TrEMBL record, chains A, B:
UniProt-recorded name of the protein: histidine--tRNA ligase
Chain segments annotated as coiled-coil in the UniProt record: none
Transcription regulation as UniProt keyword: no
A biological process from GO: histidyl-tRNA aminoacylation
Lineage of the organism: Eukaryota, Metazoa, Chordata, Craniata, Vertebrata
Regions that span the bilayer: none
Top-level class of the enzyme under EC nomenclature: ligase
Family the UniProt entry places it in: Belongs to the class-II aminoacyl-tRNA synthetase family.
Amino acid sequence: MSQLGLLPRRAWASLLSQLLRPPCASCTGTVRCRSQDQESLQVAEPVLTSQLKPHQEKPNFIIKTPKGTRDLSPQQVLVREKILDLVVSCFKRHGAKGLDTPAFELKEILTEKYGEDSGLIYDLKDQGGELLSLRYDLTVPFARYLAMHKVKKMKRYQVGKVWRRESPAIVQGRYREFCQCDFDIAGQFDPMIPDAECLKIICEILNGLQLGDFHIKVSDRRIMDGMFAVCGVPESKFRAIGSSIDKLDKMSWKEVRHEMVAKKGLAPEVADRIGEYVQCHGGVSLVEQMFQDPRLTQSKQALEGLGDLKLLFEYLTSFGIAEKVSFDLSLARGLDYYTGVIYEAVLLQTPAQARDEPLNVGSVAAGGRYDGLVGMFDPKGHKVPCVGLSIGVERIFYIVEQRMKTSGEKVRTTETQVFVATPQKNFLLERMKLITELWDAGIKAEMLCKNNPKLLTQLHYCENMGIPLVVIIGEQELKEGIIKLRSVASREEVAIKRENLVVEIQKRLSES
Amino acid sequence: MSQLGLLPRRAWASLLSQLLRPPCASCTGTVRCRSQDQESLQVAEPVLTSQLKPHQEKPNFIIKTPKGTRDLSPQQVLVREKILDLVVSCFKRHGAKGLDTPAFELKEILTEKYGEDSGLIYDLKDQGGELLSLRYDLTVPFARYLAMHKVKKMKRYQVGKVWRRESPAIVQGRYREFCQCDFDIAGQFDPMIPDAECLKIICEILNGLQLGDFHIKVSDRRIMDGMFAVCGVPESKFRAIGSSIDKLDKMSWKEVRHEMVAKKGLAPEVADRIGEYVQCHGGVSLVEQMFQDPRLTQSKQALEGLGDLKLLFEYLTSFGIAEKVSFDLSLARGLDYYTGVIYEAVLLQTPAQARDEPLNVGSVAAGGRYDGLVGMFDPKGHKVPCVGLSIGVERIFYIVEQRMKTSGEKVRTTETQVFVATPQKNFLLERMKLITELWDAGIKAEMLCKNNPKLLTQLHYCENMGIPLVVIIGEQELKEGIIKLRSVASREEVAIKRENLVVEIQKRLSES
């Protein structure tokens, strides 16, 4: 069904197994140290290394990446590429177009969009000119793009880094710099059809990634707000109480109730009324049940939300994913801009898995409807309804890392197909001519950057790097117009005509 | 030879031709405006749109991207993807591994690495904690990575955005946020072998991109510094005079001489001596000529550089690219960290091209050797010699945009293969079931997000979007267990059994 889906499970697992290895060097061969040569210069002229000021040659500070960020090693880059390929190919399967926006936006663009989290935005220093902030997500820039370019309809995906000054809990796969993969549908369509497609996409991606069973919680901002209203929450407290509710996946109801009453000043009886609702979750039958709820049905907004959820479940049944989705009144989602349906996907663990390698990574995909955001950027307030989703790829990387910790299979981080070797001294130029033929034919090829490497060193390099084929050229071969082609695995060598080299290699590579 | 090389020229030109079109909407179909629905709510409860504060609904500032930055439309993203694919596949063909580093670094990491350009670094606001700056290139972070992880040898590539607060000259394809594609070889190897491979890579990429003829200027920091020394430039003025020399591709020698004498206080006779050298360019014969130069050969450093250049030209001949490269004493390169060979590739225009669409985009690829940079990050000053290159992909995008301005061929920005249509009312659920079969089989499919779209609207959508196949389902087809499959181009329709649908579509797609 998907690119990764086509890989045998074992190959996929094997590919991922390298994740936790430390970054390692890739090239071998060393003879002359250029820097030593430079240092030993007999200086009859000024020491001409002004570009390397002596006092700068040793740093007087700790060399590290900024707090909450990290380098990705070649192994990690490889795994990330495979995961992103799968995600993007799903977005494209659903007809999405790619978009790219700058890493930073005018500070005003991001202001008052993220509720309690606004303090986590990275600002740039005022160096004269505009006040700028690093983007906090890909949704607000997308809405800004739609308004700025007057785009009324668009199915788009975007993959990119975003930045949040959170207290880093790296152990849970959370970073201050992380990658987001977003898919959104902007435009006025018939109700819940794009919303259902977003849930279908989440299912396709999580199935394709083979992360095990998962579950999607669905609710609606209008139902939550309606519930707050009929329970007696003052409107000014809606977002604050919503934030407390949002913690129910990490805290017990008792703790959340305490926070609402003691810290946020909610009347205890109001909290208890809310408690009756937020502990409910189920399928479409819970939607039906809520339609009968004498209190909730006093809210016209809640009724609207319930009506849409009913329709949504009908569509999810046609998409074959209804059993993956439940209506969950405890789902709140922190961001200010949601206006309708909201959802969040979490991975499920079997009891055995939870015992062996307990996962606590929060949601791996989430999103919702935000019909008002684009209008906030339009000079005339024209609205463009939107619904979308974001895949938590960093958390998925983390889960894969955890899962693969025990596996030790070797995965290649280079794609080299052929190595050019010689048993002869002073054969560098011949190796260069030969490898040029290969490169120019599109064949992935390497040789050692040494004048006179030993044959054994060259063959060991191939074994270590997993390069399948070796081309060997020496004086004798040159004279006879042939080349030796060696299979690293079987150690078999055959002589072939020099002019057939590229064709023969391409034949072998296509067979393997 | 390369992915794009395999594309027929026409397809490649066609692909690029869309670059200059404005972003356009992608989805059709509209019935109910959800936002209007919301506005018309009969409010028996508080207006529950607190997440959209009324005073925020219309922005009181101009909606734009920050100065010197831009959004990339789907067409531009598509072209960028193709260009980056070609570049990265060349890097991989040469055995490089991928690496990723954070968008920002500790401010100290970037300090005193970029000479006169250091003022162009974007700093982040001090929000408590570390002082951070956005990366200015990918080279310094790579050197920091090598030192921090104690990597002594590595062939790596990295693609990513970098940021520079330059006065934007967008007309020339220069932005404050732009993408870099870097390839570097770190480690101690025999002289000039990795350096020659870098030049080979530049040639492969520029050939693969079919941008027309090009030329690579080569020099060496040691030759330049030696030349300055023997001409009588005080050592304290080396970098400043180097910066003036660097402008010789945009200014005449007379203007550069004036700058050096009047602004930088160089003695006129010293300037004239420099003038004799920097106006020289040629092939390996110029290297030989300089070996006979009585003044230049007084510098041991210059002799070292000339010796390496001679070796380099020998290797370039074996790689078949010597005729693309010239020794050019006017090449200076602005960055502080270079210590040896430096190079810069420029596109050449035929006289006719220069008249029709004069290009002024500076270099499209550049790089050099920097043997001291990693040592600046190592606590003990241990050096790791490095050489690398950067492809100026933004400039390449710009050139492609200019070249394609006149072409008007249509290029698809989505990859949708099949459209699911119905002539019937109330057939949404059946369309959903059918499209689910396609998606789950990995087929790229779309349908309109409307309850009852007209058949003509659906077929027009396919024609507009370039979708080749339509699956049509109606009451009659459902009853008979068949499906109609329509070719959009030929308008031919055939009836096929429902259960053969996926196989039949896959067969057709593999044939086309």
